[in-house]
Amino acid sequence: MKKVLFAATVDNHIIQFHLPFLKWFKEMGYEVHVASKGLSQIPYADYKHNVSFERSPFKKKNIKAHRELKNIIKKNNFNVIHCHTPTASVLTRINAFKTRKYGTKVLYTAHGFHFYKGAPLKNWFLYFPIEFFMANFTDAIITINKEDYNFSKKYFSSKKTKSFLIPGVGVDENTYTKKKFEKVVYTREEIALKSTDFILIYAAELNKNKNQLFLIKAMKKIADIYPEVKLLLAGTGDMEDEYIAQVKRLNLERSVKFLGFRDDLKDIIPICDVGVSSSKREGLALNVIEYAMCGLPLLVSRNRGHLEIVRNNQNGFLFDYNDEEEFMKKIVEIYENKKMRNNFSKEAASSVKKFGLENALNEMKKIYKEYI
Fold it and tell me: Which InterPro entries is this protein grouped with (predicted)?
């Protein structure tokens, strides 16, 4: 029986993004293996290998992960290995070096290179040389935005290594969609919101890259003029306590609400009025795609991942990173112009169809079929 290995740093990455692809291999008759950190039961996986990956490449536990992967790959004659996330992809490709000589095909999906236009120099000095070297261990480099694709094609492609561009890992259009009015009213009341509130939502991990602090500070000025404008922050993360403390210091408890981890975003997003994101960098922002599929106008920071989704002044607005004045100006413009909101809403839903799960799966099938 043919075998495929999916590798990522943590279980949740596989569960959140790659189950449809595991399912496809299973239906194709493959024995499906997953190597990631954690003890989760992974649907469609015949074998789950708990590997001691750490996100930071400098952690000592990655030496143990290296040995574990070596044994997994040595014991199994994998036909295809598809790796994700920086640390896991490097260790997996190193350990697959010998087996490639016997026909194993190694694919790597870059969910956003850590080096990009405007990135800190340290990112370029550290991550670019690693990716440049690791391209020699890779049959296919799969990217999810045009900037990364053009860069990969120019610097990493060769006779033995091809670069591809796909529309992300896919968002289920049947899950994220507009809801009926009755459901909207009920859900707003559930999370202590009024029908007259104007709601912004940012669904993302609470960390420095997602940059929620920018929105919190902007809300202080917005709330003084438009108290009916509310910001929902859905997610958890290492900056959660600091952000909650900042909201209290600014007396914004009525204007900024922390929802914590939610598995019902498909019901919460449609009750909102605008989808926002203030992140420093993105590979391809799935949260923004989800906003758009639910018909929300978009207001997001200008970066490579957002540029793939937002058509400025068509389905929303882009603002320069950390430009508080521009952000506030666009919020007021969207809030006060109902006709604009409706136009943005209609365009948003239609503009992200290419990022749907079915299309993403079809694009990946084409790539897989080149190597199986």
Answer: Glyco_trans_1, Glyco_trans_4-like_N
Same-domain check for residues 249 and 299: yes
- Residue 343 belongs to domain spanning: 181-355
Look at residue 283 and tell me if it is in a domain: yes
Alpha carbon separation from 31 to 34, 46, 95, 171 (Å, rounded) = 10, 6, 20, 26
61-84 mean pLDDT: 95
Q: What is the mean pLDDT of residues 86-92?
A: 95
Answering whether pTM is above 0.85, one says yes
Residue 364 has what pLDDT?
A: 97
Q: Token match 């202080």: residue?
A: 220
pLDDT at 119: 87
DSSP 222-243: HHHH-TTEEEEEE---TTHHHH
Tell me, yes or no, whether 186 and 130 share the same domain.
no
Compute the chain's Rg from CA coordinates.
Answer: 22
CATH code of 149's domain: 3.40.50.2000
Count of domains forming the chain: 2
Amino acid at 74: K
> In Å, what is the CA distance from 257 to each residue of 201, 202, 288?
10, 11, 19
DSSP characters for 120-176?
A: -HHHHHHHHHHHHHHGGG-SEEEESSHHHHHHHHHHT--SS-EEEE-S-S-B-TTTS
**pLDDT band with cut points at 50, 70 and 90 for residue 296:** very high
Whether pLDDT at 299 is above 70: yes
Amino acid identity, position 255: S
